[in-house]
Amino acid sequence: MKKSLIERLDQGPVICAEGFLFELEKRGYMSAGEFAPMVALENPNALENLHRDFQHAGSDIVLAFTYNGHREKLREIGKENLLEPLNRSALQIAKKVANNPINGSDINLLAGNISHSNIWKQDDHESQLKAEKMFSEMVGWAVEEGADMIMGETFFYAEEAFKALEVIQQSGLPSVINIAPMAEDYMQDGYSIIDTCKELEQRGANVVGMNCFRGPATMMPYLRKIRKQITCHMSALPLAFRTTEENPTYFNLPDTNRCACPAPGGKTFPTALDPMYCNRYEMREFFKEAHEMGINFLGVCCGATPMHQREAAEAAGLIVPASKYREIEMQSEIANHPMYDN
Ligand SMILES: [Zn+2]
Questions:
Q1: Residue 298, exposed/middle/buried by CB under 10 A (0-12, 13-18, 19+)?
Q2: How remote is the CA of residue 219 from the centroid of ligand 1, in Å?
């Protein structure tokens, strides 16, 4: 019997890997800038391999890579006819991995995924109805392909997050809603970050939290405040980059590591963020605190490598397949390495 998301969260930490877009771009299977997840159709093996690497690193949930794979994005790049095949393929690949856990592990959960629509406008009924339809069709395909839960994420309009929740609730599946506020203290439609989370809980979201846009340093202060205000399960899926108080999101993060050759356009986002990577110890500190705070839905978003995902799992006290090769067990060998000889 497959345990449900809520049963798992009631028992302890649950890991959900993300960050497919950045990692597949680096592996050469996606285009930066366009960022449409065509990989599910064009290189399904590459996507399956990444899911397996993250599963090995401890992910308990296989999130279908349909992020940005919505009608608006596909229309924009002239591939609207591939919308449904793309969504179904991403779901089927994720399902294949979820149903084949690594020996000894619980069967994974399959999660459908919706995200901010790019078209939502405040007080504009027409754009909101269009966004709702985009959510509905994607949630519908996820249900048909056998999803166990739906994650809605990267919402920077509070009311778009509420609408996404409503659509997920109509499917009857458990809901995870992650908000991703821009560099301000509030959502784009004026709700405070805390009030948005309280409202999501009020409306019955099963899991409420934050993902993407912010690294550990600029996400944690909000998580601490939110944790005091809501009692439902919470999620935390930061970037693996060193965002700062001056630059809370990765969109304008400057390179502070003596960059000798800036990216064309002068911005580090999205292709020259590498020098601002968080190391595993920074990720560990973040996830240790999140776990101690009672946040049980944990994972890493953009910038995540299997190393970061494993760190999230281990910081929450889990032993995962990749733990076999964790540094601590290697310590005596590292100490014996000629490089470390004094
Ligand atoms: Zn992200």
A1: buried
A2: 13
pLDDT in tens, 35-45: 899 999 999 99
pLDDT value at residue 156: 98
Q: Could you tell me the distance, in angstroms and rounded to a whole number, from the CA of residue 294 to the centre of ligand 1?
A: 22
9: CA distance to ligand 1 center in Å?
22
How far apart are the CA of 1 and the centre of ligand 1, in A? Answer: 32
d(CA 85, CA 133): 17
> Could you give the number of structural domains in the chain?
1
What CATH number did the domain enclosing 184 receive? 3.20.20.330
Distance (angstroms) between ligand 1 centre and the Cα of 338 equals 39
Residue 228 domain boundaries: 5-252+264-340
How many whole angstroms from 129 Cα to the centroid of ligand 1? 25
Confidence category of residue 53, pLDDT binned at 50, 70, 90: very high
Distance from residue 225's CA to the centre of ligand 1 (Å) = 22
Measured between alpha carbons, how far is 54 from 49 in angstroms, rounded to an integer?
9
Q: Which residues of 130-164 are buried (b: 16+ CB within 10 A; e: fewer)?
A: bbbebbbbbbbbbbebebbbbbbbbbbbbbbbbbb
pLDDT tens across 147-163, in order? 999 999 999 999 999 99
